[in-house]
Design goal:
It contains 6 helices and 17 strands. The strands form 2 sheets. Strands 8, 9, 10, 11, 12, 13, 14, 15, 16 and 17 form a 10-stranded antiparallel beta sheet that branches. A 7-stranded mixed beta sheet has the order 1-7-6-3-4-5-2, with helices on one face. By secondary structure, the protein is an alpha+beta fold. Strand 6 and strand 7 form a beta hairpin.
Length: 327
């Protein structure tokens, strides 16, 4: 073992990927197939804002170190049932430009084999198949890259640790504005819904006519229209409906998808079109379209960040929403 890796413990051996329900970009891989390579295993799910903000680094490492023997293996383990749909995962891999192998882990078998509990989660594996480092959540990018460089050097890949990759995330992948972020991740399905303010509260698992309260409190949300609030999603079938949230953050995102075909929507901030505060999935007048299941950036404020009242309206219905996230 070289001096650059003496501080890295052996945390276990690389578990099997045998429980994957499908593979994208490669035939099925085994730990034996990967022996002799440094491997970075990345647990992700496509609506997770915390993982999306790490994606630029994962892509950059996969490209920068491929010729020295690094293999990145993405493991897509769904948080929501809609994310278990293989076509949705395949579209996400294409949209997010993931050029490395992806194990589709819709039954959580690989997740359990690793004893994992987080999105995102990174496991660095040496050329002998031993897990030498892990990191949960965002950040620690320099530390992780230095570990990869050290493991590659240990494996005899040549080239001592050098410059780090340069990364600039854009859109939903841009780093969060942590200094001004006050609003927490907020689920809209009945299983984990919190801070819901429509009069009468949530009525789970059946169509119900909701209304906005006279005033939303900070970090609270509400529905208007005839929604069915299922365990994981609030579903608006064929009627018009709206969602409101009183938030405090630079960015507001909503994970959602169409019930059938594309769905029109319009965003308002404090009752007006967002203008320069529109997100990447909205124009300045607040208009956008839900065309597939993913995370939509609806607000990005360019100036001072304060408490704002957000509203998104769906004039034709036909949408299922899962979670608000902020940045």
């Amino acid at each position: 073992m070289t001096s650059t890796t003496t501080g890295l413990p052996v945390e276990g051996t690389l578990p099997s990927f045998a429980g994957a329900t499908a593979w994208l970009g490669t035939p099925p891989l085994t730990p034996e197939d990967l022996r002799g390579h440094v491997v970075l295993v990345d647990f992700w799910t496509y609506t997770c804002i915390n993982w999306l903000r790490t994606a630029p680094w994962i892509r950059a490492w996969a490209e920068a170190y491929a010729d020295r023997g690094l293999v990145v293996v993405g493991v897509h383990t769904p948080e929501f049932r809609v994310e278990a749909d293989l076509d949705n995962v395949r579209r996400a891999v294409t949209d997010l430009r993931l050029g490395y192998p992806v194990a589709v882990d819709s039954d959580y078998a690989v997740w359990r084999a690793f004893g994992n509990s987080y999105w995102p989660a990174l496991y660095a594996v040496d050329a002998q198949g031993r897990i030498r480092h892990h990191h949960f959540g965002e950040g620690a990018y320099e530390e992780t890259e230095r570990v990869l460089q050290a493991l590659l050097e240990e494996a005899g890949a040549g080239g001592a640790a050098g410059d780090l990759v340069r990364v600039a995330g854009e859109g939903v992948e841009a780093p969060a504005d942590w200094r001004h972020l006050r609003s927490p991740e907020t689920y809209v399905g009945a299983l984990r819904a919190e801070r819901f303010s429509s009069p009468g509260g949530l009525v789970p698992d059946r169509p119900h006519e909701y209304a906005f309260p006279a005033r939303l409190r900070a970090q609270h949300w509400a529905l208007s229209g005839r929604w069915t609030v299922e365990e994981e999603s609030a579903v608006l079938a064929g009627d018009a409906g709206r969602i409101a949230y009183r938030f405090s953050a630079r960015d507001l995102h909503l994970a959602m998808g169409p019930v059938a075909g594309p769905v029109r929507f319009r965003v308002l901030l404090d009752g007006r079109p967002p203008g320069e505060a529109h997100g990447t999935d909205v124009d300045g007048d607040g208009y956008g379209t839900v065309d597939r299941s993913r995370l939509y950036q609806l607000v990005r404020q360019p100036g001072p960040v304060g408490e704002r009242e957000f509203e998104v309206g769906f004039p034709d219905g036909g949408v299922a929403a899962q979670v608000f996230t902020f940045g």
